Records
---
Amino acid sequence: METGHIWITGMGIASAMGMGVDPCLAAFRRGRSGIGRLEILETIHRDDFMSGEIRMTDRELMGLLGIPENRYRDLTRTTLLGMIAAVEALGHAGLTGKDNAAMALVSASTVGGMDKTERYFRDGDAHPGFIATHPCGDSTDRIADFLGISGYRTTVSTACSSGANAIIHGARLINHGMARRVIVGGVDALSRFTLNGFNSLMILDREHCRPFDRDRRGLNLGEGAGYLVLESEEAIAGREEHKLCRLAGFANTNDAYHQTASSPGGEGAYLAMKRALAMSGIGVSDVDYINAHGTGTENNDASEGAALQRVFGGKLPPFSSTKSFTGHTLGAAAGIEAVFSVMAIQMGLLLPGLNFEHPMEELGIIPETTLKEGAEVRHVLSNSFGFGGNNSALVFAKE
């Protein structure tokens, strides 16, 4: 069994607010959200809801990767977004092709190739290959092949906690000596099915979402990808300059309260945070920033807020929901927000949420609303909660 810390050495992101870590930092500094009206997704709801859509066609995404046009039918939007973020993460870690073969890949998704399936079904296209691209695991396989990873690969799909559970799975591979390096994270593309599904639940906001605000009306769906490179102490030997921070703690719980709603008291969220902090060995007073799940729905924000107060009492650390910049990217959300958490530690950032005006009357908690740079951020807690009460929390530490 491996011993020692699990280090994060690379990070990559594709999102509506920016295609890459540096563009996302620039967007935070400008307070510029990537959320707006739909332009790429073909739907009757194009003008009805705000979404965190990446304003690039699939062919333009292929161009970023240098993939030839004749591969268009084979690659879903989910796959392309995952490739873009994973390539950045590996480059950031200073790893090259020869390093990739022995790596593992744990990728999360909830949508898979649904965007392609919808298109072919609607158009009556008889292309036989589209069925193979539909499962979530197809994107994982194609990302691994594109990166030259020939080792362990698997796909996690646990609703909106998927990306966090992929990170946890990767950490366990390292802890049990099954891998020395693992690319972990999540990816999802917008599709009509998910847009219509969330609309049927009546939890989509027609304007910009307002996490933790008294007058919040729902979430904005988004798309994107976020990946980290995890390495064992043995793997990073001789490359210590690539240490960004470490994954210090994690936990997953299930409150089994409802198919889609969180429990009012946030029992599962509370236990996930408590157990992740216990694994990390730090106290509640040591947490410098919390990247909250914060969807902007009435149920989630009240439940998570109650859980946060149970964990931290009257001394709640600075917190925010960055979904007001990216939209809720489902299986990609925890991966993207893990990247933001690492950025917060690396760059000394307290990240803001947008559109907050009035505290919730029952809780009175107030998120960060402006970017603060030059902060001392040593420990970050990142929350991700999914349908069915699947709750995950991650703790990142500076050293």
---
Amino acid sequence: MKFLLIGICALGITGCTKTKPPAPELFKVDPATAAKLRGTVHFVGRKPPLKLISMDAEEACEKLHDKPVDGSGFVVGKDEGLADVFVYVKAGLEGKSFETPKETVVLDQRGCMFVPRVLALQAGQTLAVKNSDPVSHNIHPNPRNNREWNQQQSPGSPDLVRRFVRPEVMVPVKCNVHSWMRSYIGVMDHPYFAVTGPGGDFEWKSMPPGEYTVAAWHESLGELTQKITLAKNGEGSLQFTFRLPE
């Protein structure tokens, strides 16, 4: 009977071959009703102490800096804006599929540090990992919802090209050679995310109107969330304020 079934399938009879499910229809924002959302992330109160990195174990790394490097990942800029905060729509886009960007996102290893410390991309988008240093590194993302990988990268070697196929907040990245090197990657299944600069600002210029939960994540301060409703052609604003726990 087993051989008979194989023979029938070889003839291409319906029911024996597996068909690939159709690709989901991509969602497009209607420009006639699109809404805007902008916001700022602030830090108030006492600031945490610096965490100066000792690079004594790697002389080549130490020579790349003319002053001590802070490894706290805590950067407060103008008007108390908080940098390196991953801001994203946490809820409100369910059931919508978005086109994967063709642009490549770059994570560099420069000065024996990951640059940028926090980055973001969409699931399936290309990530290129560079080594701009005169020493070898070993990049090691440790995700929970994607495949873990761990690869050595020598000076002058080609970029490592990878993709994360599923959304995840956040993917921690380390270098197995230099223990102080840390980075975090946010992976989303939609385009409504941002990483704040020194001003703490973020903006999404074309969003479908609706009710949203927006989250702001910082590596040492945790996550804050807020809800907002955006009307057709509406403009919304959010302010996130982080502080150290008492």
